[in-house]
Design goal:
alpha/beta; about 40% helix; single chain; seven-stranded parallel β-sheet; 9 strands; two-stranded parallel ribbon; binds NADP nicotinamide-adenine-dinucleotide phosphate; globular; Rossmann fold; 7 helices
Length: about 250
Amino acid sequence: MATPISDKKYALVTGGTSGIGLSIVQTLLSEGFYVAINYAANIERAKEVQTQLEVNHLGQFSIVQGDLSNLTIIQPFVQELLDITPNFDVLVFNAGQTDRSPFGEITPEDWNRVLNANLSVPFFLTQSLYPYLSESASITFIGSLMGIRPHAMSVSYGVSKAAVHALTENLVKHVEEKKIRVNAVAPGFVNSPWQKNKPAHIVENINKKVALHRFAECKEIANAVFFLIKNEYMNGEILKIDGGYSYQ
Ligand SMILES: NC(=O)c1ccc[n+]([C@@H]2O[C@H](COP(=O)([O-])OP(=O)(O)OC[C@H]3O[C@@H](n4cnc5c(N)ncnc54)[C@H](OP(=O)(O)O)[C@@H]3O)[C@@H](O)[C@H]2O)c1
């Protein structure tokens, strides 16, 4: 665990040890933020990330393990965050889960896991951390193109991401007293470990539908997130970033 730096701005990135989250972490570290980096279970990857980030950012981050798909984690997780700082400037809710079971085989447990990880835990973390957010803090959710347009792959995922977009718009008025801004990005298909098992023919099929004929790089999504954090007039926005995806 690293020691916090007193005059830094503090950020939380959930799911920050891989893919899009790691790229957001790297961006924030480069911009001088102190970052609390959360992950769920892959301790080997967390250790690799720690070693990699210590090269240029020693003392500028803490890694906080916590599976955010269960509501019982809220209180102990918040306490761990408050041990780092009582004053966060940036929250990025990036950790996400999916369930690719066929419609008829979806269990209540899997439904709740996906809805908790993508929607409910981020909401209750926001609620619990609200007293510890600085004036003009920024909250960003990672939504999805699949929350805008239905997709056959996962009902719970699409529903949860649509709800994340609705949450983004609904939260704005609840946090206005502190001039806190709430935004979301809705990525299309992104080159991250999340997509690594996608068969080549499916990737090819998707690339045909994307006008730029490729997946996004994680850094391109991180840049969009950082734009929402930095631009002080962006509020209540769902920023779709999908390379020009069409369903023809
Ligand atoms: N990749 C895409 O095409 C795409 C498109 C649209 C939206 N998104 C969204 O972008 C976000 C990040 O996806 P990604 O592609 O970067 O995924 P990824 O490469 O698989 O990384 C996922 C990260 O989230 C963590 N995580 C997963 N479940 C968690 C949980 N229950 N609690 C805490 N941390 C958890 C993982 O930690 P462990 O390794 O320890 O499990 C890892 O650090 C997700 O919300 C996803 O829905 C992705």
